[in-house]
């Protein structure tokens, strides 16, 4: 029996107090996610239950019970406290998927500070921009990533502490560096958890927009109320589950459903700190008897590509429930998973800004492959006419996906950018920036983004950020960045560039430019193709029209070009 039972019944009597009651939270109480995800579970008598099963790429294993993560997060909190970290200070977690990346967040939250996960593949500029914007006080990292921090340290006077979790004592520590070892730290049984309130900030997640630098989405401790209930009703987490969320906590899926959701429910979760390979993934499921698997369309398409023969080598019979997020889940992937695993991946739709699942397929509900499903109880979702910002009064029309603000995990603002936050609302609706239609039965059908943001393998890339970085290359005069179709990643980054006098187009230069971006931003933002052009299409006011380049890549109608400079 699924946790949600009947979707219709849940819809009728819905109130967020259902979640508050289960969490034992009353409005006005203190609310600290760090405490909820560890101490509270122990107080419920589940301290000896496994919280985390961890495996590295080389097969090393670690296991943590709820007592372990409670004490370990206390140790981290006490350590941060000792360094002088204060409530609402930003503390960044910049590591591979090591246990500290997960438990560390609980420690940060227990001090009242704000957790800021950044993907460990970020380099120089990507890292700098996000640490600078957040005015981060401390960064918790591994020795292999410390050189990247050292490189930008001069430009980050507010970054006082670089905490290295695996310092081996061999090379001398540099300026502002301090070691902390979870294994060597004395486990602390009691830490005075800072009494954060519902509206106290908890997390800062950076996401890409069309213009400007990445924006820091500010979440608060009350987001727990959404994350807990969606973990229960959509991910259908149950007492005996072994849950695997494949997302890195550098992205919101990896925190909302890779830390907060499962641990606030007292669930055992497994983490594989290794890159993608079909064999390794199936082996992991078999070894840990994974029952609930939350992943992403690109991974599913990669598994499909790896073929059905490899599946047969493993016993995947433990799988009970599968879900997906981050990009459009094509109907073939749904049908394939049902055929191969005996269970269909259920699509879920949400964003960094929404903090929790908004639209979804629910266990037990009829699946329409290719549809994202229906709004979560308590969420009012619709599509708006892009001209009037009013909901359509007929079904089937493509419009802007909009949500009525007011659910617990809605972002509270963009960090230091209230104006960008305000621009996300029209007519009392929060605009997601996506387009869809709704059918007669209330199912949402995703169409695409309503802006130029590129979704490559589930990661949002800002064309602006890549264009700005390209302009720093000595050979490039102008640049325009758009998405290009790709069978596995759905979209990849493509750059159009004009060269400065004295530079000639060549394959070597193309590779050099790609590498330049990889080293400056991250492998995700690296263009997969560079096209040299004589000039870029521009409006009469000189603004580059990415829309035209995008339409060409996707074989679409170019549309209105009346603003074009050279027509
Ligand atoms: O465009 C939508 C796409 O990913 C965007 C949100 O990305 P991010 O903030 O990084 O959060 C991703 C994980 C929650 C959305 O605006 N997206 C997300 N889920 C889906 C999706 N596109 C299609 N189908 C989905 N299920």
Describe the structure.
It is a single chain. The chain has 18 helices and 27 strands. It has 567 residues and is α/β, with parallel strands linked by helices. The model has no long low-confidence stretch (mean pLDDT 95). The chain is 30% helix and 23% strand. The chain has a nine-stranded mixed β-sheet with strand order 2-1-11-10-12-13-14-15-16, with helices on both faces. A five-stranded parallel β-sheet has the order 4-3-5-6-7, with helices on one face. Strands 17, 18, 20, 21 and 22 form a five-stranded antiparallel β-sheet that branches.
Bound ligands, named by name, code or SMILES: adenosine-5'-monophosphate-propyl ester
Task: Characterize the biggest β-sheet.
Answer: 9 strands, mixed
Write down the CATH topology of the largest domain.
Rossmann fold
Determine and state the CATH class of the largest domain.
Alpha Beta
What is the assigned CATH homologous superfamily of the largest domain?
Answer: ANL, N-terminal domain
Descriptive key words:
567 residues, alpha/beta, Rossmann fold, GMP Synthetase, Chain A, domain 3, 2 domains, nine-stranded mixed sheet, five-stranded parallel sheet, 27 strands, 30% helix, globular, binds adenosine-5'-monophosphate-propyl ester
Summarize this structure briefly.
The chain is of the alpha/beta class and 567 residues long. The longest helix has 18 residues, at 66-83.
Secondary structure layout:
Elements: H1 7-12, H2 17-23, H3 33-36, H4 39-46, E1 50-56, E2 61-65, H5 66-83, E3 90-94, H6 99-110, E4 114-117, H7 124-134, E5 138-141, H8 146-152, E6 161-164, E7 177-179, E8 201-207, E9 215-220, H9 224-233, E10 242-245, H10 252-264, E11 268-273, H11 278-288, E12 292-295, H12 297-306, H13 309-312, E13 321-325, H14 331-341, E14 345-349, E15 359-360, E16 374-375, E17 381-384, E18 399-403, E19 413-414, H15 418-422, E20 425-426, E21 429-438, E22 444-449, E23 454-456, E24 459-461, H16 463-470, E25 476-486, E26 490-499, H17 507-520, E27 529-532, H18 546-554
Parallel strand pairs: 1-11, 3-4, 3-5, 5-6, 6-7, 10-11, 10-12, 12-13, 13-14, 26-27
Antiparallel strand pairs: 1-2, 8-9, 9-19, 14-15, 15-16, 17-18, 18-21, 20-21, 21-22, 23-24, 25-26
The structure holds adenosine-5'-monophosphate-propyl ester.
Adenosine-5'-monophosphate-propyl ester binds at residues 207, 251-253, 325-329, 347-352, 372, 432-434, 446, 449, 455, 460.
């Amino acid at each position: 029996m699924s946790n949600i039972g009947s979707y219709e019944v849940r819809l009728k009597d819905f109130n967020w107090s259902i979640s508050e009651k289960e969490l034992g939270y009353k409005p006005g109480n203190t609310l600290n996610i760090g405490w909820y995800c560890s101490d509270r579970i122990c107080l419920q008598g589940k301290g000896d239950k496994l919280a985390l099963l961890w495996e590295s790429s080389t097969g090393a294993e670690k296991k943590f019970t709820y007592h372990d993560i409670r004490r370990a997060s206390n140790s981290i909190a006490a350590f941060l406290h000792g360094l002088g970290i204060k409530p609402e200070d930003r503390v960044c977690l910049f590591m591979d998927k090591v246990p500290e990346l997960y438990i560390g967040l609980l420690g940060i939250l227990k001090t009242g500070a704000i957790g800021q996960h950044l993907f460990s593949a970020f380099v120089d500029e990507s890292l700098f921009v996000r640490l600078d914007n957040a005015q981060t006080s401390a960064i918790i990292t591994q020795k292999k990533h410390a050189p990247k921090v050292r490189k930008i340290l001069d430009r980050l006077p507010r970054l006082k502490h670089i905490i290295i979790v695996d310092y081996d004592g061999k090379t001398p520590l540099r300026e502002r560096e301090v070691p902390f070892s979870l294994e060597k730290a004395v486990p602390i049984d009691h830490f005075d958890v800072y009494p954060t309130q519902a509206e106290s900030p908890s997390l800062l997640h950076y996401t890409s927009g069309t213009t400007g630098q990445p924006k820091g989405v500010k979440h608060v401790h009350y987001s727990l109320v959404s994350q807990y209930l969606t973990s229960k009703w959509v991910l259908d987490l149950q007492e005996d589950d072994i849950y695997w969320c494949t997302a890195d906590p550098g992205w919101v899926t990896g925190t909302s459903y890779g830390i907060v959701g499962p641990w606030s429910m007292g669930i055992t979760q497994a983490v594989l700190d290794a890159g993608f390979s079909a064999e390794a993934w199936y082996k992991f499921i078999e070894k840990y008897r994974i029952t609930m698997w939350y992943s992403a369309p690109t991974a599913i398409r990669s598994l499909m590509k790896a073929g059905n023969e490899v599946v047969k080598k493993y016993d995947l019979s433990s799988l009970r429930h599968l879900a997906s997020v981050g990009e459009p889940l094509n109907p073939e992937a749904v049908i394939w998973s049902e055929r191969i695993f005996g269970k269909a991946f259920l699509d879920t739709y949400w964003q960094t800004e929404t903090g929790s699942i908004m639209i979804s397929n629910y266990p037990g509900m009829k699946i329409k492959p290719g549809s994202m499903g229906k709004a979560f109880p308590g969420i009012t979702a619709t599509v708006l006419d892009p001209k009037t910002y009013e909901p359509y009064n007929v079904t089937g029309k493509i419009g802007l996906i909009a949500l009525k603000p007011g659910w617990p995990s809605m972002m509270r603002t963009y960090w230091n950018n209230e104006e960008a936050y305000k621009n996300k609302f029209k007519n009392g609706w929060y605009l997601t920036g996506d387009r869809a239609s709704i059918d007669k039965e209330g199912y949402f059908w995703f169409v695409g983004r309503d802006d130029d943001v590129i979704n490559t393998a589930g990661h949002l890339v800002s064309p602006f950020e890549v264009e700005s970085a390209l302009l720093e290359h000595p050979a490039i005069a102008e640049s325009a960045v758009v998405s290009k179709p790709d069978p596995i990643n759905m979209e990849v980054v493509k750059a159009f560039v004009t060269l400065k006098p004295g530079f000639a187009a060549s394959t070597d230069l193309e590779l050099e430019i790609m590498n330049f971006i990889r080293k400056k931003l991250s492998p995700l933002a690296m263009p997969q193709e560079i096209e040299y052009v004589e000039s870029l299409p521009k409006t009469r006011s000189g603004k580059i029209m990415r829309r035209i380049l995008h339409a060409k890549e996707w074989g679409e109608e170019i549309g209105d070009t009346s603003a074009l400079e050279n027509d």
